[in-house]
């Protein structure tokens, strides 16, 4: 392998390394120097988690060939404060609760440091602008920007350093702002996520993925890949010793494609090699012959007579149908003065957590197959894996690593099985770190949905009946679909007391990327439809949107859609607070003219613009334009 | 994932040209490298093995800029952030700070070069319209025997289509020379999928100078990007405005013309609507900046 001699300085220490000339600065920092505070969230310059200072300028180390570091002075998150200490900015992040999953936070701290070094008086908008190259998925940015403003004021002496200390907590933590105990590790870049962990003799895994949405695997030849230098094992579904199948409700998914592939990106085979590049190179040595099959790409097509069947156990392609009935739907509509009918659709959504999937598996000295990963459901995974690898439960262990954002997307056991199998075959620790592209192509998404909704109302705005029919695209495997449909049905008609209901939520198999758990778990799709219907009803009936909701809201004693009697209900309080907080102009949607007074002002956000840094402040030194 | 057999960082132009002339097939020139690394990933080029990467960022002749005869010669290693932080560049190239602030993000601007943006020749490139508005010429070097020879051509002609330029084997872009326009007001309008880190769906660059009264357009330069295979200068619109009394009505009429230039294959109606609004907004915004610029020039004169 060609080598390049690299001499540079990192956090004040001189480094001399012989490196592969194709490496990025990020690779050298993380893999050669084990400085894993600098994260990789995308590898394409989009997310900012890899930001480091090079000769005082903040750059994205995933976009910088390592060779460019020759002779430079690098500063990473580990070098901002002395070991064990935190900078003012890091302490401000700790104070405001700016770190949640923490994965974006080292990059955010670096960007904040850069922003305040460039302009110690940067205002709110300028801070936002200067940190525009960094993405956070948890916080909505508010607490991050709040932290930078707090740090700015403490550094400038406008606020006391005491503002960085924990707020006093009286008799109860409830109602008081408490600092997160894991924040110091996150703001310092010390917390090790699965992709940051290394073990002696560790192998690296790469996965061969299906290029086809639906195809039969006619043959697979892994011999060339097995013979490649550095390759320690190549695994396929044939290597699975037990009952191969996982899923949150139905165990319909093999850990690697078995006989056929059902979506683009499905794992077909995996390689474990001594280094990542050898593993990736070996994928090209696996020869797979496919016979393409007709595919299903729309949920409605999956229900058509004669549609291709994806899973033999489900000849109708239905993963789950949840019917829910209450009262007398015909009588309810007969009592209505107004009947509204509308169709709604929602799209597939990616979770986009900043930490791509990663994990390490090893077989320990007692033959316990151990998997470390940011799994959101380790107990369930442990039971499923025991059956898949045919080991007793006490010989299977799952360790949950810090989750760099999940949002439901890390509930499925889509790679842990492959890791376990490779560790069992090699008796060496095996690590996988997904690329961002791999994460997006292979992991579950929010269910796309189509809903047909009928709502009957009296002239006074009381809902007399509601019919809700939702069809969801579950994609190639069941994953969390059943639970999502159940929750969608339960929440379908909103927090409203409705005596007569007919609700059906159905999810079908298609050859699209599987749908799975995603925060709100089916609630968002149905609430979008129902709340839109309520607004339309308010318009038709000339009622204030808050008022129509108050006339229908569930109260203590109400029966929910699944006929549970409520002991307490808080919607009235929520509506009051929302009405007050939004400075709502009362009235039906039809009574206003072209403009309204409550869409601007305090508490509302102006449209995005750039160029805040051009506004010269009185205390700033050299400003431009 | 990018791999290479050899990574070279020449220090002089002659060294760089010699390396480039002798580089095996499939070798690449890079400057900021912000485009090549995302390119070598799944969904684009995938895993790429390149023989020799020739990194130009340490070539002495390509760094910095010189001012001469009302023009500024920007070395090919001038990075985007320089247009925000260098007071001379910001004052002399009034549309560039506004373009720069919309280009990628603060980190990428520290690495990415203007010259690299032009050489990529994306129809949606942020950098081409302002350079065309500033009558930009591109300077290209090659070796003739052992002698470095250069040729210069307008950027508007250098870019011949999407991803296509007039650059020939063995040649390296060494500089971009543009008009220095202190006292002008600049503007850059851009819309993309989000605020940071996106190329333009549509962009419009403007530089405007008024007469001393501030009531007449003395000079107007406008260029559009993202609406066809290559960026374009709006010469007819400029002619409608140049020498005329400034009025909202005139600007409104002038901004209607470029709508018909939209030659994109997608989202044509959207782009037509945006173009009209952008041309108007760019002229108005540049006028406002021209007034500020005139004031600060006056102040400087008074101080001197």
UniProtKB/TrEMBL annotation, chain A:
SUPFAM superfamilies: 2Fe-2S ferredoxin-like (SSF54292), CO dehydrogenase ISP C-domain like (SSF47741), CO dehydrogenase molybdoprotein N-domain-like (SSF54665), Molybdenum cofactor-binding domain (SSF56003). Keywords: Iron, Metal-binding, Oxidoreductase. PROSITE patterns: 2FE2S_FER_1 (PS00197), 2FE2S_FER_2 (PS51085). Residues 4-80 form the 2Fe-2S ferredoxin-type domain. GO terms for molecular function: 2 iron, 2 sulfur cluster binding; iron ion binding; oxidoreductase activity. Coiled coil: none annotated. Residues 585-625 are annotated as: Disordered. It comes from the Bacteria. Transmembrane segments: none annotated. Belongs to the xanthine dehydrogenase family. This is Molybdopterin-dependent oxidoreductase. The lineage of its organism: Bacteria, Pseudomonadati, Pseudomonadota, Alphaproteobacteria, Rhodobacterales.
Automatic annotation (TrEMBL), chain B:
InterPro entries: CO_DH_flav_C, CO_DH_flav_C_dom_sf, Diverse_Substr_Oxidored, FAD-bd_PCMH, FAD-bd_PCMH-like_sf, FAD-bd_PCMH_sub1, FAD-bd_PCMH_sub2, Mopterin_DH_FAD-bd. One of its GO terms (molecular function) is oxidoreductase activity. SMART domains: CO_deh_flav_C (SM01092). Keywords: FAD, Flavoprotein, Oxidoreductase. It comes from the Bacteria. Residues 1-183 form the FAD-binding PCMH-type domain. This is Molybdopterin dehydrogenase.
């Amino acid at each position: 392998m060609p080598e390049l001699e690299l001499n540079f300085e990192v956090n004040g220490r001189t480094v001399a390394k012989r490196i592969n000339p194709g490496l990025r600065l990020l690779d050298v920092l993380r893999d050669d120097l084990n400085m894993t505070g600098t994260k990789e969230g995308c590898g394409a310059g989009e997310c900012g988690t890899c930001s480091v200072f090079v000769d005082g300028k903040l750059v994205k180390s995933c976009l910088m060939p390592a060779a460019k570091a020759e002779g430079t002075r690098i500063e990473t998150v580990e070098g901002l404060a002395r070991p064990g200490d935190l900078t003012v900015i890091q302490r401000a992040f700790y104070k405001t609760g700016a770190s949640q999953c923490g994965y974006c936070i080292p990059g955010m701290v670096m960007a904040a440091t850069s922003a305040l070094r460039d302009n110690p008086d940067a205002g709110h908008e300028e801070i936002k602008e200067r940190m525009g190259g960094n993405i956070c998925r948890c916080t909505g940015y508010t607490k991050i920007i709040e932290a930078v403003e707090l740090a700015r004021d403490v550094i400038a002496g406008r606020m006391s350093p005491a503002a960085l200390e924990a707020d006093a907590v009286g008799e109860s933590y409830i109602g008081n702002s408490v600092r997160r105990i894991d924040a110091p590790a996150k703001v310092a870049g010390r917390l090790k996520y699965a992709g940051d962990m290394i073990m002696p003799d560790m192998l690296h895994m790469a996965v061969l993925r299906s290029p086809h949405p639906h195809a039969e695997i006619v043959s697979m030849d892994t011999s060339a890949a097995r013979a490649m230098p550095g390759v320690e094992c190549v695994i396929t579904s044939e290597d699975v010793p037990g009952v191969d199948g996982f899923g949150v409700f139905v165990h319909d998914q093999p850990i690697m494609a078995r006989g056929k592939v059902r979506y683009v990106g499905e794992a077909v085979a995996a390689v474990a090699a001594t280094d990542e590049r050898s593993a990736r190179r070996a994928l090209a040595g696996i020869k797979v012959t496919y016979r393409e099959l007709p595919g299903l790409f729309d949920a409605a097509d999956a229900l058509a007579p004669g549609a291709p069947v994806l899973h033999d156990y489900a000849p109708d392609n239905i993963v789950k149908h949840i019917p829910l009935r209450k009262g007398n739907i015909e009588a309810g509509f007969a009592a209505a003065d107004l009947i509204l009918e509308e169709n709604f659709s929602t799209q597939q959504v990616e979770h986009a957590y900043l930490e791509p999937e990663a994990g390490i598996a090893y077989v320990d000295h007692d033959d316990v197959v151990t998997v470390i990963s940011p799994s959101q459901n380790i107990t369930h995974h442990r039971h499923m894996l025991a059956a898949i690898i045919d080991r007793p439960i006490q010989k299977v262990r799952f360790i949950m690593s810090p989750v760099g954002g999940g949002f439901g997307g890390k509930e499925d056991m889509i790679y842990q099985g492959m890791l376990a199998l490779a560790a069992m075959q090699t008796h060496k620790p095996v690590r996988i770190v997904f690329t961002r592209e791999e994460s997006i192509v292979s992991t579950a998404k929010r269910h796309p949905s189509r809903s047909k909704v009928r709502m009957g109302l009296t002239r006074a705005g009381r809902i007399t009946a509601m019919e809700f029919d939702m069809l969801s695209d579950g994609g190639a495997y069941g994953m969390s679909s059943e639970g999502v449909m159940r929750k969608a049905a339960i929440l379908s008609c909103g927090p409203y007391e409705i005596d007569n209901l007919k609700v059906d939520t159905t999810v079908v198999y298609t050859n699209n990327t599987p749908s799975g758990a995603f925060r709100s778990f089916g609630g968002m799709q149905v609430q979008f439809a129902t709340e839109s219907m309520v607004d339309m009803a308010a318009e038709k009936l000339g009622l204030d949107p808050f008022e129509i909701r108050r006339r229908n809201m569930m109260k203590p004693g109400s029966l929910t859609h699944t006929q549970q009697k409520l002991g307490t209900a808080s919607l009235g309080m929520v509506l009051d607070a929302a009405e007050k907080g939004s400075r709502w102009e009362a009235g039906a949607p039809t009574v206003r003219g072209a403009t309204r007074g409550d869409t601007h002002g305090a508490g509302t956000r102006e449209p995005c613009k750039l160029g805040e840094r051009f506004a010269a402040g009185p205390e700033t030194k050299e400003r431009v334009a | 994932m990018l791999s290479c057999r050899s990574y070279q960082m020449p220090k002089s132009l002659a060294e760089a040209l010699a390396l480039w002339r002798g580089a095996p097939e499939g070798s690449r020139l890079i400057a900021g490298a912000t485009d090549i690394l995302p390119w070598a990933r799944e969904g684009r080029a995938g895993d790429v093995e390149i023989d020799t990467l020739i990194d130009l960022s340490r070539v002495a002749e390509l760094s910095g800029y010189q001012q001469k005869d009302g023009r500024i010669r920007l070395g090919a290693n001038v990075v985007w952030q320089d247009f925000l932080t260098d007071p001379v560049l910001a004052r002399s190239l009034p549309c560039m700070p506004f373009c720069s602030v919309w280009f990628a993000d603060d980190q990428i601007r520290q690495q990415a070069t203007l010259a690299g943006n032009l050489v990529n020749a994306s129809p949606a490139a942020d950098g081409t319209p302002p350079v065309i508005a500033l009558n930009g010429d591109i300077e290209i070097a090659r070796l003739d025997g052992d002698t470095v020879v250069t040729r210069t051509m307008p950027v508007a002609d250098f870019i011949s289509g999407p991803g296509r330029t007039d650059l020939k084997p063995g040649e390296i872009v060494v500089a971009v020379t543009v008009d220095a326009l202190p006292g002008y007001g600049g503007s850059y309008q851009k819309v993309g999928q989000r605020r940071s880190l996106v190329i333009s769906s549509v962009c419009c660059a403007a530089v405007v100078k008024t007469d001393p009264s501030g009531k007449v357009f003395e000079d107007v330069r406008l260029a559009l990007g993202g609406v066809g295979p290559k960026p374009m200068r709006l010469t007819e619109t400029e002619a409608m405005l140049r020498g005329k009394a400034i009025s909202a009505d005139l600007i409104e009429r002038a901004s209607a013309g470029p709508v018909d230039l939209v030659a994109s294959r997608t989202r044509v109606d959207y782009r037509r609507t945006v173009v009209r609004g952008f041309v108007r907004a760019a002229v108005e915004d540049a006028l406002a900046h021209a007034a500020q610029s005139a004031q600060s020039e006056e102040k400087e004169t008074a101080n001197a």
